[in-house]
Amino acid sequence: MTLRSYLFVPGDRPERFAKALASAAHQVVIDLEDAVAPDAKVHAREQLARWLRSDLPAAQRPRVMVRVNAYGTPWHADDVAMLRDAALCSVMVPKSESAEQLADIASRVAADVALVALVETVAGLVQMRAIAKARAVARLAFGSFDYCVDAGVEGMGRELDAVRSAFVVESRYAGLPAPLDGVTLAIDDAARIVEDVAFGRGFGFGGKLCIHPKQVDAVNRGFAPSDEERAWAQRVLERLAQNPQGAFAVDGKLVDKPIIERARRIAAEVG
């Protein structure tokens, strides 16, 4: 299944973990970083370790990842050490700024653990090509708000066009899935989340970070092919089967190789 929605849950609120798993989020990201105050981080890690060991249902384990504290912070090494024995499939790495940092993290977790590199600084953007190809990195994610603070960018719209395009280009160049777009802070504005999802998808993003369960359904729907797109892809592939060597048109438009590849990608999308 294509993973589209990544729902953050504060790491010091274990009573919310099950609620997040009950949502339709494709991945639940238990956050030990920004969502937890410095003086609560050690306790949050201890609580999370107990929950992962005793309370997380085995069937749900593939849906859970942890955002550890950033490389070089006082809590990072212990976060990673705790996860080494947790049998999780993936880890989110904030403030990803170099391939060497990510390779070091990969060397300290289980061999089959995938890293989602959260790029949210200018340094990370400059190094994104190397980051995307670093060992164990499975996807890039855009930490848009932190990036704007670091870069001194005041707007969240067209001001970030070049940055968004870079995420898509580098993901494609590295052979990674389409990247994850940053969060939308509006929780109760349904129209805003739909608009932001459409905007991100238009740039080539394949999913989005979420801060509330209310955002999940809009993200899942918005990044999935619509019924109209699936029907169009089916028409294209049916005509291709009838004309495997010749040119043909669908809906009055000529179909060439790039159009066929787009139809195949849409048809292959699950969910």
Automatic annotation (TrEMBL):
> Single Gene Ontology BP term?
oxaloacetate metabolic process
Q: What's a single GO MF annotation on this record?
A: catalytic activity
Q: Which cofactor does this sequence's record say it needs?
A: Mg(2+)
Q: Does the keyword section mention Metal-binding?
A: yes
Which InterPro entries does this entry report, sorted A to Z?
A: Aldolase/citrate-lyase_domain, Citrate_lyase_beta/mcl1/mcl2, Pyrv/PenolPyrv_kinase-like_dom, Pyrv_kinase-like_dom_sf
Which Pfam family is one of those matched by this entry? HpcH_HpaI
| Residues given in the record as substrate binding sites | R67, E120
Q: Which residues bind Mg(2+)?
A: E120, D146
Swiss-Prot/TrEMBL keywords: Magnesium, Metal-binding
Q: Which domain of life is it from?
A: Bacteria
Q: Where is the HpcH/HpaI aldolase/citrate lyase domain?
A: 4-213
Q: Does the keyword Cytoplasm apply?
A: no
* Gene3D superfamilies found in the cross-reference section: Phosphoenolpyruvate-binding domains
Supply the name of the protein: HpcH/HpaI aldolase
UniProt source species: Caballeronia choica
The organism's lineage?
Bacteria, Pseudomonadati, Pseudomonadota, Betaproteobacteria, Burkholderiales
